[in-house]
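ok trying again, last paste got cut off:
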Amino acid sequence: MPSPLHLSPPQTTQRYTVDAGAIVRGGPHAALHSGGGGGGGGRKKNTEAARRLLPRASTSHSTSTSVQSSTQPHLHHHHSIENMDDLHPLNEATILANIAHRFRMDQIYTRTGPILIAMNPFKWLPMYGSEVVRQYHGKAYGSLPPHCYQEAEDAYQQLQHTQVNQSVVICGESGAGKTETTKLMLQYISIVARGGVEDGSSSSSGGGGGGGGHGKGGEEGVVVAPTIGERLVQSNPLMEAFGNAKTLRNNNSSRFGKFTLLNFQRPMPKHGHQHSRHLSQQLQQQSQLGGSSSSNSSSSSFPISGGQVSNFLLEKSRVCRQQRGERNYHIFYQLLAGASEELRERLRLPMLEEEEKAGRFYYLAQSGCTRVEGMDDAEDFAMTRYVGGREERRERREGWNAFILVVSI
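nice, full thing came through this time. structure:
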């Protein structure tokens, strides 16, 4: 039997505070300040400043209240913690200091147990693409630094090992990067499920959000049609055109909830339970070894066979009214900025100057904002129209009907 754990009552109390405002002001690293404090457990109300955060305090009496000293926790400036379960002490101060320290080093991913914490850097970082996909593919969870690819790989491995449905919940406030993270994870799963990691036949060699052209594999010059997973990834421009808008906090804010469902083809058993047991043992060995080349060959046994994107809670009121400084949905401005003369004639849109295209319509100009810095509506419309009109004739007709509906509004 394990020996019981005996706790001796503490003799002194320590209270820790962190100057979280220093991070916003661009000052020095957040430092912990320890000093004597009053007794009482739980969180204490801070009367010094509203920006100070007080983690848990000890339940004991103070021995001195006149001396305060500034000390650092076990987290040093030259060292960061990938898994915050290993922080000591673990409290709100050390969590904020660790995330802020990693953010300044462009290490935007941190995890606490199975939960991935992502900070939006508002810039593109060279930490995606086909080379990074190869690094994370087939590796055991926690063997590499935290990354959204690692979460996608873990879900895919669990699907193979247990053959039980897997779920990934991506949540956060506006501008946190939910849309981009979703696209990156879908992109990763579409590549590894296709089995194009080793031969470089992934459809998106560059890192980023989305698309890419048709993948190439096999003989040189042979164009491979995109898989269902890749088509889901490449449909993002169309989804964002009709469901995203500029807000005060985010230039590309999703104004709807999205549920993406991927269906995978179950492998056909060759020898009944014996094949399933062999596959389970093989995956366990790969997990213990941190992944191997054989994991890449087994990934193709679970290809994506179908998918569905369900939208809900669309902000319909934005079509008629927006706050000052915000915009309507992207598709309205894209259509006015990027439509050709032939399309304008067919849709009976007025021929206006560039600066008058969106300002002519009340639903688009009532907020005083018709353009977004760094966003080319004409170029985005070309991508939207390409995604919506490249499929079968029936789907092209549906895209044309959608344009007619937009113009009628």
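cool. The chain has a mean pLDDT of 74. Strands lie at 15-19, 32-35, 52-53, 68-71, 109-112, 115-118, 244-245, 253-254, 257-264, 304-312.
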